[in-house]
Amino acid sequence: MKHLIPELEALKRRLPPHQDGVLVLPALRRIQEDRGFIADEDIDGLVEWLGIPRIQVEEVLSFYSMLRRAPVGAWHLQVCHNVSCSMHGAERLLAHLEERLGIACGETTADGRFTLSTVECLGACGGAPVVRVNEAYREALSVEAVDALLEELAGAAPPDTPGGWV
Amino acid sequence: MPGIVIDGQALEAADGQTVMEAARAHGITIPALCWHPALSVDGSCRVCMVEVEGRGLAIACNLPVREGLAVLTDSEAVRAQRKLTLQFLTLNHPVDCGICDKAGECLLQDYHYAYNATPSVSNEPKLHATKHYSLGERIVLDNERCILCSRCVRFTREVSGSHVLGIEQRGDTSLIRPAAGRSLDEDPYSDNVIDLCPVGALLSRRFLHQSRVWYLTATPSICPGCARGCTVDVWHRRPDWQLQAVATHRNHAIARVTPRENPAVNGPWICNKGRDLADLLERLRALQPMVAGVPATLEEAMAAAREAIAAARHPLALVSTWGSNEELEAFKEHLGPLFTCRVKADHQRGPGEPGDDGLLIRADKNPNTSRARALFGEAPADTPGDTDLVLVWGEGFDGSTLPAGATTILLGSFEAPENVTAAVFIPLSILTERAGHYTNFEGVVSGFAPCFPAPATVTHAEELFPRLVPEGGRP
Asked: Which of A3, A85, B210, B297 lies deepest, with the highest CB count within 10 Å?
């Protein structure tokens, strides 16, 4: 994360003094955006830069399921399986994705292109069922729409960072 | 000074106080699990809920006082809310009080009886979590009993400053955990979290399953581990619950040590050395008076000592910094005129032991250096070359500094090789067998009381000193 410090320093300058602890979350988001996940050395770097106890970073990391401690595939498909999406067939979509990709939920394809997981409510119940593809939402999906999505992703250039912005 | 009303009682609060603080200042107890007077406000347990008249329910620990504020601490609405809160707190709590060390002094248990006293209304199976998570060599954590009050976390952040503990994960899977690669062993004040824990989640390995707390009683004492002289409670078996047939040695053993709150000395805390007083005081005792290494009666040993003192021309006395004020004064009165007196450090700072740390721990590992120096001066405890007799009271005497031909009289409590080589050895009682006072490095005087009877063959120093004066004094 060392190369991110100059831009994070700019963020720090906007804060009142002695409030540096609040930078943990934006810094972790920026690190994940940059590397695709948060590595041990990122935690060490953050602890050193902010001068805060390590446990403070670990608490934040374990609290937010959006922060990853391990790399994912180029395309991270997160199937919402909360109430609204489940009622609209999320489990069916998940089973179909498992079959099409040949992996179980939580796994990454051998070629490193896809990671499949479930996620709790994405706050888009109006568009249920929802699958989050990296940073974007795909809403009101059917099995056919998922097939079309996979085809589209197969032809698309992967993002610079696995699981990151396109 | 806002005037507020608690349960119909008008009282003056201080500016900036919370309702919790104002109530306690006037002797009104509002129940709470996460709130602690020496820690920041967390507001997570919701047990201190009170009814603000005209406004509804609010937590007292985080409710600032203002002029005219009227609260009820035990109204119908408060009791109903507290009952629900306790239903939630015990939702995943194992309620295994029968095998829990905290039972009998557990706040959750007390509040359950006081405010809930009904079985769980939930039909869901309880969530399971780690049962014996090691937090180091001193403490184990039972995550199922934990109610996530965060007192222990706040202690390591706000008091001891070790920042070892935190809460990881979220919701009902939250867990108290140490930071990666760290352990509570790094924190010399870690055992305070055992007392702070309002339930039986943080357990002392030393005390684990050793006794039900209602079989124990606490005697006020002083930790002799350093010059701070923290006031402590020494817990030991109650006289009416003495063991009769098995493990009877436990009747006269230290079961555990906890802080005795004292704003003038140690506040509500002590360090881990204080918890381990048994390591200091339950070492192998010297119980037999001896003359030249040969067992003797106390009378014979005292007679031999008087003879040696009467015959000495340049006698030196090394005075104990573990002696009480009373003992030091008795020594000064009776033996002071007969000897050149020097103050000796009975204990030195051990390897790896902390020095002055700005919180409680002091580098001087003796409890009464302050009074000893006031009575006997600051001169270093070295031995002049013409010394022909050394009276050593207590530990920490280096026999190699003794001039050739000089004899020693030893007054001590513990087994040591030099007891046998001394001309006279007389065994003394220890801290837990007598009453007295210590003066700490800041001049604060605190008292200690006896926990156990002294063994028949040992003497109290205060009674011994007048009996060591030779008939007619020293020529």
From this structure: A85
